[in-house]
Amino acid sequence: MTARLYVIPGSHPSMSARLMLEHKGIPYARTDLIPVVAKGVLRAARFPRATVPALTFDGRRIQGSREIARALDELRPQPPLFPSDPAGREAVEIAERWGDEQLQSVPRRLVWWALARDHAPLESFSKGARLGVPVGLAVKTSPPIVWAASRLNDSKDARVRTDLAALPGLLDVIDGWIDEGLLNGEQLNAADFQIAPSVRLLMSMDDLRPAIEGRPAGRMASRVAPDFPGRVPPVLPATWLPAEMQPAAAT
Q1: Other Cβ atoms closer than 10 A to 123
Q2: How far apart are alpha carbons 229 and 47 in whole angstroms?
Q3: What is the DSSP secondary-structure string of 181-223?
Q4: What residue ranges do the domains of the chain occupy?
Q5: Which one-letter DSSP state was computed for residue 134?
Q6: Looking at the predicted structure, is the pLDDT value of residue 60 above 60?
């Protein structure tokens, strides 16, 4: 049976689901949705929540990257997304939950903040997507959607500045897990697929990529999610960037 995955182009949780399906060798069809508008489509498709990623597979409707990871291990055990030993599984689940609850919202807020100031990069995030309308037209008519998405994600100046101040510490956590062997091991796990797309979305921003791509977190993200669409030209005020992420420090 072919799975059907509902995604939003450039969505890092959607990329997590795509990578896990490919890791399992499960064929799937993809339905690309427009942000905000996606909520109505998912409701019409009888999903219980208005969020992506959303997956239909083996007669089931599954939403959320963490829920999808567990369902895929149940439906297609090999290769596993979670270690078989209890201690190893617990460690992966802790990192996976952190990636979902602590990290995931940061790149989302930063990118929507940037897109609210320049809609043009939206086209780069839609590379390869089939939205039902020409991508150029979708970008031209995007201002109300960008405004709504920015509000939904609380992409305000003060929140973005707080996120940027916290970002070096978040990357340190990922680097630490890589050093321990929990992430970026020979056998990728659910935490790798949860965290890597968030780091790749951060790296889509020209302001941040130089300070991330050379560190362990950046190298892991490029390995796990090598083909992540989107590029946001410099837009962040230099004074908002932490000292260790300033251009001079990155080089």
Answers
A1: 19
A2: 26
A3: TSSS-SS--HHHHHHHHHHHHHHTBTTTHHHHTTSHHHHHHHH
A4: 3-75, 86-250
A5: -
A6: yes
Q: Buried b / exposed e across 73-82, counting CB within 10 Å, b at 16+? A: beebeeebbb
- Chain Cα centroid distance, residue 11: 5
DSSP 232: B
What is the rounded CA–CA span in Å between residue 7 and residue 18?
Answer: 9
- How would CATH label the architecture of 86-250? Up-down Bundle (1.20)
Fold of the 3-75 domain: Glutaredoxin (3.40.30)
Q: How confident is the model at residue 41 (pLDDT cuts 50, 70, 90)?
A: confident
Q: Is the pTM of this model over 0.85?
A: yes
Query: Is pLDDT at 20 greater than 70 in this prediction?
Result: yes
Please check whether residue 6 is in contact with residue 45, taking contact to mean a CB–CB distance below 8 angstroms: yes
Would residue 119 be called left, alpha or beta, if left means φ above 0 and alpha means ψ between -120 and 50 degrees? Answer: alpha
What interhelical angle do 86-98 and 65-75 show, nearest 10?
150
The mean pLDDT of 122-150, rounded to a whole number, is: 74
pLDDT band at 87 (very low <50, low <70, confident <90, very high): very high
Residues 178-235: tens digit of each pLDDT: 999 999 999 999 999 999 999 999 999 999 999 999 999 999 999 999 999 999 999 9
